[in-house]
C-alpha cells in the first residue's frame, strides 16, 4: 500500500505524453481534462503520502519530476504552437537547470542536502500552471480576454527570475556560512 503515491506519480509521468500530443494537435479540451487529472492525482498522492506516512525518497523525486515534466512538456508544446514566447520557456528551463545544478553542487559539497521549495518557487509554479490553463482555455472552447494570458506571461517571467535569484541567494548564503565541508 505504501507504494501507491509512487505509482500515482509514475502514472502522472506517463500522462505527459498524451497531454503534449493533444496540445500539439490543438485538442485543447481533451488536453485540459488530462491536465486536470494530473493535477488531481498530484493532490491525491501528496495526501496519501502525508496522511498515511507513505513518504519515501523515491516519492520525493518522482512527485516533483512528474510536475516538472508536465509543465515543461506543456510549455514546449505551447511555444511550438506560438501561443507563448519561446524566450519564456527558455528562461523557465534555465531556472530549473540552475536549481538542479545548484542542488547537485551543494550535495557534493555538504553531503545529503534536502531541497525544499521556497515560497516564491511555489508561487512561480502556481503561475506557470495558471498560464498553461489560461492559454488552453483561451485557445480552446472557453474564449476569454487576451490580456489575461499576456498578464500571466509577464507574471511568469517575473516569478521565474525572482525565484531563480532567490535560490542562488539562499544557497550562496549557505555556502558563505558553512565554507568547510560539513558532510
Core attributes:
6 helices, 2 domains, mainly alpha, 183 residues
Structure description:
The chain folds into 2 domains: 82 residues; 100 residues, no CATH class. Helix content is 80%, strand content 0%. It has 6 helices and no strands. The mean pLDDT is 88.
Number of helices: 6
Rg (CA only): 18 Å
Could you give the count of β-strands?
Answer: 0
Query: Low-confidence spans: pLDDT under 50, at least 5 residues?
Result: none
SS-based class: mainly alpha
Give the N-to-C terminal Cα separation.
34 Å
Largest pleated sheet: none
Integer average pLDDT = 88
Shape: globular
Question: What percent strand?
Answer: under 5%
Assembly state of the chains shown: single chain
Q: Give the total of domains.
A: 2
Share of residues in helices: over 70%
- Following the backbone from N to C, one meets helices and strands in this order, namely HHHHHH
Short note summarizing the structure:
This protein is an all-alpha fold and 183 residues long.
List the helices and strands and how they pair.
Blueprint: H1 4-24, H2 28-51, H3 57-80, H4 86-110, H5 119-139, H6 146-177
Helix pairs in contact: 1-2, 1-3, 2-3, 2-5, 3-4, 3-5, 4-6, 5-6
Amino acid at each position: 500500500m505504501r507504494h501507491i503515491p509512487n505509482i500515482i506519480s509514475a502514472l502522472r509521468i506517463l500522462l505527459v505524453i498524451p497531454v503534449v500530443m493533444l496540445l500539439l494537435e490543438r485538442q485543447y479540451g481533451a488536453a485540459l481534462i488530462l491536465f486536470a487529472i494530473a493535477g488531481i492525482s498530484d493532490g491525491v498522492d501528496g495526501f496519501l503520502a502525508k496522511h498515511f506516512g507513505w513518504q519515501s525518497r523515491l516519492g520525493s523525486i518522482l512527485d516533483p519530476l512528474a510536475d516538472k515534466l508536465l509543465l515543461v512538456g506543456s510549455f514546449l508544446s505551447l511555444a511550438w504552437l506560438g501561443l507563448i514566447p519561446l524566450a519564456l520557456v527558455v528562461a523557465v528551463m534555465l531556472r530549473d537547470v540552475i536549481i538542479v545544478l545548484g542542488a547537485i553542487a551543494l550535495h557534493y559539497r555538504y553531503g545529503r542536502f534536502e531541497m525544499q521549495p521556497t515560497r516564491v518557487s511555489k508561487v512561480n509554479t502556481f503561475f506557470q500552471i495558471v498560464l498553461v490553463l489560461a492559454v488552453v482555455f483561451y485557445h480552446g472552447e472557453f474564449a476569454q480576454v487576451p490580456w489575461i494570458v499576456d498578464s500571466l506571461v509577464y507574471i511568469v517571467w517575473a516569478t521565474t527570475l525572482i525565484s531563480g535569484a532567490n535560490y542562488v541567494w539562499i544557497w550562496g548564503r549557505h555556502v558563505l556560512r558553512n565554507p568547510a565541508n560539513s558532510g
